[in-house]
């Protein structure tokens, strides 16, 4: 479910391909429908409605946008634009913010124009890529991990689990670190800092020993990095004392953080692995070693896509595969659990938390901020949709802050931390929140009845009009019916009744 009530959803435009240089926008003389469709896709329908002209140009048009659609007119563009005008726009609460002042924040005291950074990966691995991201509006980049190791990548090295729409839900990679030399990467830093002095460069590094951690840290500071991120978490570099093998041993985390601290005075973040039961021991070790903050999470060790004919999992490289890092929207709940753990830890009080793991929309980013993250990092969504998603990340979050009356990100950071418990023991168990059925939206598919019968408490039946009828004596308020309804025709009543 979405955090806030939405009128338009991805399901309303499920066939849209979110095209590059979209034909629908070229065909429309009065709107940019491709950008508006993207905003709907990324949970940002309100900002889309604000961008509409005063008069609706779509009502009596010939839908040239739909005629140009490469999906053979299958995307209901005209209908969606009309709904933005008629259903979303009239419900806008405040004027759209005229600037992005609310989004300004700091990372260990260093100003950022917004909280959005590219995370250390292929999306921030060359000068050209970083420059295009900066021009698009990203505040900074955690540059792809710099090392002295001779990197030779496998091919292919990506695989994914996809939704019914074809979008990536879970993403696996067996990619390693930067394949540029240290000298080449330092030259990139200098050029980026010269041409984009206000953008933030977070230099991700990985050493093979104490001396390398210290030397790489020193070089990054000397060549313009604003801060350093210690990669203690890459699951694809886990042999010996590398990657996630470090993050699983607090003593190594402390030792190599101390080594990096000897090399530089700029802020240091330790990027920790989620391939542990608890992250706090490693985080506390990093702080003891001199870290100013924590970045989390890196990818989760995974196996996906076992071929039933060859028996090899994906991606297959000449008849073999390997455990790799899992990312994407599917890992966000796991990432949030670790962010909450770090935020609750008094030993980490005052330390910066840079959160990542499955962020696609501004609402995803807000969840991390509400649980204590000061900045957020993104990779998989950029790989899928491009740097352009920054527009909706910024405008959606900015509008939310304005609607809530907040003047800065700091006012919302951590507000959810004390409302989540590590165990379910604290939860009140004497009341029931019944579901509410919106019969005007119901199409009578009966999915709620099936799920309640076979996975719930047999509290629903269909009446003669194929509408669900609830037996209040059997309903326990589990809300399974709400989750499975494809029409969003069931919601929570918002009322808790005492059990009899």
- Mean of residue pLDDT? 95
Low-pLDDT stretches: none
Count of DSSP E strands?
A: 18
Query: Could you give a short account of the major beta sheet?
Result: 8 strands, parallel, barrel
Q: Estimate percent helicity.
A: 25-40%
Distance between the termini: 29 Å
Strand order of the largest sheet: 3-4-7-8-9-10-13-14
> How much is the radius of gyration in Å?
24 Å
Percent range for β-strand residues: 15-25%
Estimated structural class: alpha/beta
Instruction: Please count the helical segments.
Output: 17
Shape: globular
Textual characterization of the structure:
- By secondary structure, this protein is an alpha/beta fold.
- 31% of the residues lie in helices and 17% in strands.
- The chain is built from 17 helices and 18 strands.
- It has helices at 23-27, 33-41, 45-50, 64-67, 77-88, 127-136, 182-195, 210-222, 244-247, 250-263, 280-288, 332-344, 362-370, 380-385, 390-404, 447-455, 480-484; strands at residues 105-107, 110-112, 116-118, 140-146, 158-162, 168-173, 200-205, 227-232, 268-272, 293-296, 300-302, 324-327, 352-356, 375-378, 431-437, 460-462, 468-470, 490-498.
- Strands 3-4-7-8-9-10-13-14 form an eight-stranded parallel beta barrel, surrounded by eight helices. It has a four-stranded antiparallel β-sheet with strand order 5-6-12-11, with no helix packed on it.
- Strand 13, helix 13 (362-370) and strand 14 form a beta-alpha-beta unit.
- Helix 8 crosses helix 10 and helix 13 (362-370) packs across helix 15 (390-404).
- The chain is globular and about 75 Å long.
- The two termini are 29 Å apart.
- The relative contact order is 0.11.
- The mean pLDDT is 95.
């Amino acid at each position: 479910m979405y955090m806030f009530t939405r009128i338009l959803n991805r399901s309303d435009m499920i066939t849209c391909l979110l095209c590059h240089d979209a034909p629908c926008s070229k065909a429309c003389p009065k709107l940019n429908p491709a950008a508006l469709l993207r905003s709907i896709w990324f949970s940002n329908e309100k900002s889309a409605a604000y961008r509409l002209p005063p008069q609706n140009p779509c009502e009596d048009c010939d839908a040239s946008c739909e005629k140009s659609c490469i999906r053979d007119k299958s995307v209901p563009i005209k209908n969606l634009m009309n709904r933005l005008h008629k259903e979303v726009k009239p419900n806008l609460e405040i004027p759209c913010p005229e600037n992005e002042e609310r989004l300004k924040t700091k990372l260990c005291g260093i100003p950022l124009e917004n909280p959005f950074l590219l995370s250390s990966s292929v999306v921030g691995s060359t000068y050209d890529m970083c420059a295009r991201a900066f021009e698009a509006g990203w505040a900074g980049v955690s540059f792809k991990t710099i090392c002295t190791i001779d990197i030779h990548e496998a091919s292919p090295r990506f695989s994914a689990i996809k939704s019914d729409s074809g979008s990536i839900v879970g993403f696996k990679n067996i990619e390693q670190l930067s394949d540029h030399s240290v000298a080449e990467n330092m030259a990139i830093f200098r050029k980026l800092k010269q041409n984009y002095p206000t953008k933030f460069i977070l230099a991700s590094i990985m050493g093979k020993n104490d001396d390398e951690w210290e030397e790489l840290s020193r070089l990054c500071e000397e060549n313009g990095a604003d801060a350093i991120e210690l990669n203690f978490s890459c699951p694809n570099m886990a042999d010996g004392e590398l990657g996630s093998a470090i993050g699983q041993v607090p003593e190594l985390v402390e030792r190599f953080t101390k080594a990096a601290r000897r090399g530089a005075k700029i802020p240091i973040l330790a990027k920790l692995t989620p391939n542990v039961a608890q992250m706090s021991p490693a985080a506390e070790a990093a702080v003891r070693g001199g870290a100013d903050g924590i970045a989390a999470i890196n990818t989760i060790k995974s196996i996906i896509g076992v071929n039933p004919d060859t028996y090899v999992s994906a991606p297959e490289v000449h008849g073999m595969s390997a455990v790799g890092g899992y990312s994407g929207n599917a890992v966000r709940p796991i990432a949030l659990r670790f962010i909450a753990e770090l935020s609750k830890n008094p030993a980490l009080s005052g330390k910066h938390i840079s959160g990542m793991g499955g962020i696609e929309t501004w609402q995803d980013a807000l969840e991390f901020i509400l649980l204590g993250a000061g900045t957020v990092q993104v990779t998989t969504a950029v790989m899928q949709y491009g740097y352009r998603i920054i527009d909706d990340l910024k405008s959606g979050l900015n509008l939310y802050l304005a609607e809530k009356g907040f003047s800065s990100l700091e006012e919302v950071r951590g507000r959810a931390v004390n409302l989540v418990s590590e165990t379910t023991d604290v939860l009140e168990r004497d009341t029931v929140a019944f579901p509410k059925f919106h019969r005007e939206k119901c199409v009578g598919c009966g999915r709620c009845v099936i799920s309640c019968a076979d996975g719930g408490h047999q509290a629903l039946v269909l009446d003669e009009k194929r509408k669900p009828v609830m037996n209040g004596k059997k309903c326990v308020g589990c809300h399974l019916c709400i989750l499975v309804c494809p029409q969003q025709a069931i919601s929570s009543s918002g009322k808790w009744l005492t059990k009899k």
